Amino acid sequence: MAFKIATLKFNIHKWSSYSYNYIPENIYVDKPADQSSRWSSDSNHPPQFLLLKLEQAAIVDSITFGKYEKTHVCNLIKSLKCYGGLMNDHMIELLESGLKNDHIPETFPLKNEIDSNHFPCRYIKIVPLQTWGPSFNFSIWHVQLNGIDDPDVVKPCMNWYNTYREKEAIRLCLKHFRQRQYVEAYEALQKKTRVDLEHPILTELHGLLVTQGNYDACEDLITKACEEGLFEQYISDQDYKPKWTAIEPVSSGSESTDCRPGMRGGHQMALDIHTESLYLYGGWDGNQDLADLWCYNSLNRQWTCLSRNAAEESGPSARSCHKMCLDYERKQIFTLGRYLDSSMRTEANLKSDFYMYDIENNKWMLITEDTSAMGGPKLIFDHQMVIDIKEQTLYVFGGRVLTCTTEGERNVTPQFSGLFSYHIPTNTWTKLRDDCTELRSRIGHSMLFHPKKRALFIFAGQRSKEYLNDFLMYHVDDSSVEIISDGTKKDVSVTGRPDNPGYQHIRNFLKDPSKKSVPAAGFTQRATLDPDTDEIHVLSGLSKDKDKRDNVKNSFWVYDINKCKWSCIYKNENTGQQYWTKMQHVEPVPRFAHQLVYDHVRKVHYLFGGNPGKESLPKMRLDDFWCLQLCRPSPVNLLRRCKYLMRKYRFQELSSQDQQKAMLYLQRDLAAVIDHNSEAETQEFHLLASTLFSSGLEDEEMYDSQSSFSESNTSESYHKRTELFDLLVEFFPENMTQPKGNLVDLIPLC
Questions:
Q1: What dihedral angle (degrees, nearest 10) is formed by the CA atoms of 28, 34, 39, 40?
Q2: Where is 649: in which H helix or E strand?
């Protein structure tokens, strides 16, 4: 919001209950040292609430909750909702979230926009749902509302909101009149108000389809709409469907396993999108670390061994749990870090060597024997490293610091590495952040660099025995940190006050209530980023329930950066050996310590190797190779679906008029648009012929039991065409369509 945010004055209008001296008015003042300065309900059973009334209507931007200075048994609310509106009996949900069980004040953005226009509120209702302690009542220590109450700003918003409500009421009436065929009322209201029910294209579609029953003209109109890209928004809103394909490399003439990489986990892969070449280095085969470098070319589907032992060619020693980045503009690969067994952690071995591989000249180069001597990280493993190709800068974050191990020091507190940058042209390391509260270091996490947003996305991982589920952004140009999600609750908050640097970005979470489903806390999940679609992809690895033997399960998540929304597009929780033996050529067996890379130009993932987590075979590693494509309906498929719906309804209409003509139409026209790969659609097609032989009485009974218009004067054909129209409208952008609600649904039952 461009205007200055101020503290809004309010009073307590209503409350559900209170206990003893913990009256609702206590929330007016912020006294973190006074444990009696709070509102407490007399019960922890909903519904409990506080209803706040602003001194005047305002655009409420956020709500801040103060807290007691120490951990307290009645301290906080684990989950809550906030509602707002101009009247206390007609409010909408503004927030669903919860407070952390600590002493730090939290500020939550509140929904205050409809169609990118701000709306005012006079009432704010706080509804606690769950406490941190199961046997304690709800307590709120302090509430501060932040927003704008300047009449010069609020009045235009109020006028817009009133106009919006009036317009939506008229559109609901228009929809109702048209559905019931109240033609005169519809035309009179539209002429008087000059309010459009929908986009002219959809009005034309309704006339051709519902009024005239001209199905051929409807198909032409839908085809034109598809060609003009009107279905693109619908397609982008659909969840992906994963398509796994096992890759069987083409043999170079020998059937020996020497023509492809062997079994391993903890290896690294990097992709050159220009040459469609995938590079794989190192890993652990269950018995020893590896030092081989391989290249897979997706054009000829062949692996090539570039180096059997890189250490013999001035390259890095055998290693696992390292990291590797590829600069596809300059054809350079960088590798850093490695794991050492405790018996190998001597002072002489704990230097952090740093290598670069020149792809065009097939040559390794040692950049430095020890990055810590140059201001870089110490020897680390299970860290993350990404590259900013444009600025020729590497970013390294997290990882466990390896230290010398002596008798009596095995239980020493682990050290975690901070955030570093390495500028390639000047050979310069810079420490950007130490391990700190704002940016907690960890191992087994994910970190991705977005070249257009100039930001690092960091999430999940493990810190000692704690599994993390937070989600952060680090802006590389100004070194600021944004907390997208702290991982402790469904929604997001900003620690402190509304001037927190990450506040405006986090507001976007409120625009989509479906964001609440997020991946579980995990370790060794694999993530990729598509800078063109602004999406993050996550393939699950080891879950946080590490002690359970069935904790390695397949799931794939997509995060839409612009919509701030997670979607689980795939989950398979089968754990039986018999099932995975049967499915081994259909999808990859669950695993961890695998590697996943993404070609964002061709939209293909590649997966290789890993540890299947078999208790009976602890040394077993995998060498299977897969590609994954994320599929959405194409415009062509969506157009076919629309034609199928129109022809199905046309057939049903014909079957009640001329059964012979209907049968010919079924065999010729409807069969031509059936997706025979769809079992449900094929089965439905086969069942349609049965409608030709059903009695009129059965049709009438079915219609009377299902139709919401049975008491109206609409004909059955008009009703069925309206039903089809509503189905087709779903494929168009929401700003083009009629209201989704119905007028009759606004009438209370009592």
A1: 170
A2: helix 635-655
Q: What is Dmax (Cα atoms) for the chain?
A: 93
CB 280 within 8 A of CB 261: yes
Question: If you ran DSSP here, which 8-state letter would residue 210 be given?
Answer: I
What is the three-class DSSP state of 582?
helix
Name 51's Cβ contacts closer than 8 Å, sequence gap at least 6: 12, 13, 14, 15, 88, 123, 124, 125, 126
CA distances from 116 to 87, 121, 157, 565, 733 (A): 22, 16, 11, 19, 16
pTM of the predicted model as reported, rounded to 2 decimal places:
0.77
Write out the two tokens for 136: 């304690």
Q: Quote the tokens at residue 702.
A: 């079915």
Which tens digit of pLDDT belongs to each residue from 514-565?
Answer: 344 677 666 678 999 999 999 999 998 655 454 444 456 788 999 999 888 8
Tokens of 20: 């003893």
**The two structure tokens encoding residue 349:** 């071995």
Sign, CA torsion 491/495/499/505: negative
**In the Cβ-directed half-sphere of 383, how many Cα atoms lie within 13 Å?**
33
Q: Which two tokens stand for residue 249?
A: 């490399």
Residue 116 has a pLDDT of 87
| Two structure tokens written together for 252 | 């170079």
Burial 126-150 (b: 16+ CB within 10 A, else e): bbbeebbeeebbbbbbbbbbbbbbe
Torsion sign over Cα 178, 182, 188, 189: negative
First-to-final CA distance of the chain: 41
Name 312's Cβ contacts closer than 8 Å, sequence gap at least 6: none
CA distance 670 to 643: 9
Split at pLDDT 50, 70, 90, the class of 574 is confident
In whole angstroms, give the CA distance from residue 492 to residue 473.
Answer: 14
The model's confidence at residue 400, banded by pLDDT at 50, 70 and 90, is very high
Amino acid in position 191 = K
The CB density around residue 192, as the number of other CB atoms within 10 Å, is: 9
Q: Which long-range contacts (CB under 8 A, 24 or more apart) does 131-135 make?
A: 131/44, 131/74, 131/76, 131/77, 131/78, 132/75, 132/76, 132/77, 132/78, 132/101, 133/73, 133/74, 134/44, 135/44
Nearest-angstrom CA–CA distance, 175 and 183: 11
- Residue 304: how many CA atoms within 13 Å on its side-chain side? 13
Residue with the two structure tokens 């996550």:
538
Beta bridge partners of 50: 15, 126
- d(CA 403, CA 349) in angstroms, rounded, equals 10
Q: Count other C-beta atoms under 10 Å from residue 583's C-beta.
A: 14
Higher per-residue confidence, 43 vs 493: 43
Amino acid, single-letter form, for residue 643 = K
Cα 100 to Cα 108: distance, rounded to the nearest angstrom: 12
| Other C-beta atoms lying within 10 Å of the C-beta of residue 430 | 12
Give the pLDDT score at 408.
Answer: 46
Helices assigned H by DSSP within 66-150: none
Task: Dump pLDDT digits (tens) for 160-208.
Answer: 999 999 999 999 999 999 999 999 999 999 999 999 999 999 999 999 9
Which two three-digit tokens encode residue 133? 């302690």
pLDDT at 573 over 50: yes
Question: Are the C-beta atoms of 743 and 175 separated by less than 8 Å?
Answer: yes
**277, β-bridge pairs:** 272, 297
| H or E, element range at 190 | helix 183-193
Q: Residue 281 is encoded by which pair of tokens?
A: 């280095």
CA distance 661 to 155: 62
